[in-house]
Amino acid sequence: MNQLIQSIKSKINEIKSEIINFQHFLHQYPELSFKEYKTTEFIKEILNKNEIEYYSLMDTGVICNIGSGENCVALRADIDALPIQEETQLPFASLNSGIMHACGHDFHTSMLLGSAIVLKTFEKDIPGIIKLIYQPAEEKLPGGAKILIEKGVLENPKPSAIFAQHIYPELQTGQIAVSNGTILSSADELYWKISGKGTHAAQPHLGSNVILAQAQLITTAMNLINKYKDPLTNTLLSITSVHGGTATNIIPEEIKLMGTLRSFDDNWRYECHQLLIKKSSEICGLYDCSSELEIIRGYPPLINDTKATDIFSKSAESIIGKENMQNFKPKMWAEDFAYYSQHIPACFWFLGVKSPKSTLTHSLHNPKLCPDENALIIGSQLLAASAIEYLFSTK
Question: Fewer CB atoms near the end CB (10 Å): N or C, the chain?
Answer without folding.
Answer: C
